[in-house]
Specification:
Blueprint: E1 8-9, H1 25-30, E2 41-42, E3 62-65, H2 77-81, H3 85-90, E4 95-98, H4 129-141, E5 145-150, E6 154-156, H5 161-164, E7 179-180, E8 183-188, E9 192-193, E10 196-197, H6 199-216, E11 220-223, H7 231-242, E12 248-251, E13 264-266, H8 269-278, H9 286-297, E14 303-306, H10 334-337, H11 342-351, E15 355-359, H12 384-396, H13 398-402, E16 404-408, E17 416-423, E18 426-433, E19 439-443, E20 450-454, E21 460-463, E22 467-471, E23 476-480
Parallel strand pairs: 3-4, 3-15, 4-5, 5-11, 11-12, 12-13, 13-14, 14-15
Antiparallel strand pairs: 1-2, 2-16, 6-8, 7-8, 9-10, 16-17, 17-18, 18-23, 19-22, 20-21, 20-23
Length: 481
């Protein structure tokens, strides 16, 4: 097991230039020096010098797939989705997370994929087990990896366990099986508690999860409502999965205690911070507080999932928002939610310490889109080149997936977020205007001088201190060396 410790060094601040308006020299000369904040450096994980999980996963972005959204013909989804794998590979994706594939409950149900009727079978609407096995094999041929979405906290009301193993479930005072939380379509499983664990349920759930690894060669799981299941179960289960093959485990949970049983956890504080930032309700420096708290609270090797959208947030970003409630925008686009700042915010997700997630359809434009049934339609997307360059470089550059993080001070720290990622000779300088205003950013640090290439334009750039960068509204620059 890795030693799970954090080293966080806070280093002295660098010179901060006075406030500048948009390139107006007269105003610049009159500007008063702003208060000098500290920059800081994260020199171990979350940076991620020691990355949790199997070696194959450390540099791979994740793509979440909701097969329902593709509108494939009934029974053909697995076969049809195979044609999407090479295009996703070309875009820089490395891990495919498939939302639940099991047969769905019908009793008290409304069609949710998270209402599982049989853990050992597949939804016939998607295809056969042979089709699924072929899909996994094709993914592996391309160097892609498959995560199944697993629902361990509850089952459908017509799951065979309800009648065959009622002892697997939680009961009320009258002896009735209870529903899970406020979800009327599912029944709550009962894993027991310290001193009285429900070992038969543990064994049955383990057997179901090892089945898909052994028989279908999947590469791991995204575990739904992972915090609803005792951490003792996950700590017991993980080595049994790893004994079969090195798996990658993602928890739908935000708590540090889920590491190291899980390699990656959801990051729910950063998205709500970004919403507030995009709405002009928080400064860009609010990001610092999230990173510093993570560095303090999470163990070495912990990977945090960075995202702007997923199947829960797609229609209502308040579903799992951790922090101030966000304004509901029914039917709004992702672009509207983030006030026009999707591009720099997606860059933030892919360049901060952690691992980026892309929800299917985001690659079709910065508005709310369903994914295309025709895989090659992605090549015509206005943001195809943006994601291809961003995720391709994430895979290639150890500065991004296992490099140190150094926050850089600018003259507009309330609106600009600038930082350096570094690993050995690899450097990535990220400068993001997280506001709808044009401005000129000035920054200075001893690590900057040298020749760089801008990631999205390939334009060469030679830096000398100080650096001045005119930035358009929501403008972004990513320089690689």
């Amino acid at each position: 097991m890795l030693t799970r410790v954090y080293v966080l060094s806070v280093i002295a601040s660098i010179m901060l230039y006075g406030h500048l308006s948009t390139g107006n020299a007269a105003e610049t000369s009159k500007a008063k020096p702003a208060p000098v904040p500290h920059d800081f450096r994260l020199t171990s994980e979350l940076t991620t010098k020691v990355v949790a999980g199997p070696a194959w996963a450390k540099n791979l972005p994740i793509y979440e797939v909701n097969l329902d959204q593709y509108k494939f013909p009934r029974g053909q989804a697995f076969m049809a989705f195979e044609s999407h794998l090479p295009v996703l590979k070309e875009m820089g994706i490395g891990i495919i997370w498939l939302m639940p594939l099991h047969p769905r409950g019908e009793k008290k149900a409304f069609g949710s994929p998270y209402c599982v009727r049989d853990y050992l079978d597949l939804n016939p609407a998607f295809g056969t087990k042979a089709d699924f096995k072929h899909l996994v094999q094709r993914a592996h041929e391309l160097g892609l990896h498959i995560l199944m979405d697993w629902v361990p906290n509850h089952t459908s009301w017509d799951n065979a366990w309800i009648t065959q193993h009622p002892e697997f479930y939680q009961h009320d005072a009258q002896g009735n099986i209870t529903q899970a939380r406020s979800w009327r379509d599912v029944a709550q499983l009962n894993y027991g508690h310290p001193g009285s664990w429900n070992q038969p349920l543990w064994n049955a759930m383990r057997d179901a999860m090892t089945y898909w690894v052994k028989e279908y060669d999947i590469n791991g799981y995204r575990c739904d409502v992972a915090a609803g299941v005792p951490i003792e179960f996950w700590n017991w289960l993980r080595p049994q999965l790893d004994a079969l093959k090195p798996v990658f485990m993602l928890a739908e949970a935000n708590e540090p205690r889920h590491h190291p049983a899980f390699d990656m956890t959801y990051e729910w504080t950063m998205p709500s911070t970004i919403f507030a930032l995009a709405a002009g309700k928080q400064p860009a420096t609010a990001i610092d507080q999230v990173l510093l708290k993570e560095a303090k609270d999470y163990p070495q090797g912990a990977i945090r999932m960075r995202f702007l959208d997923n199947h829960d947030w797609h229609n209502d970003p308040n579903v799992w928002a951790d922090g101030p409630r966000l304004d509901r925008l029914p039917g709004s686009s992702v672009l509207q939610r983030y006030n026009g700042g999707i591009a720099p915010l997606m860059i933030l997700c892919a360049t901060l310490p952690g691992k980026p997630l892309l929800y299917n359809g985001q690659e079709m434009g910065h508005e709310k889109h369903d994914p295309p049934a025709d895989a090659t339609a992605r090549h015509q997307s206005p943001v195809w080149d943006f994601y291809r360059r961003l995720y391709g470089h994430y895979q290639r550059d150890p500065a991004l997936y296992e490099g140190e993080f150094q926050k850089l001070v600018t003259n507009h720290d309330d609106k600009v977020y600038a930082f350096m990622r570094q690993r050995d000779q690899h450097h990535v300088l990220v400068v993001l205007n997280l506001s709808p205003e044009p401005l000129t950013c000035i920054l200075q640090t001893g690590t900057l001088p040298g020749v760089y290439s801008e990631l999205f334009t390939d334009a060469p750039q030679t830096f000398t201190n100080p650096v001045q960068l005119p930035l358009e509204p929501w403008g972004y620059r990513v320089y690689v060396q």
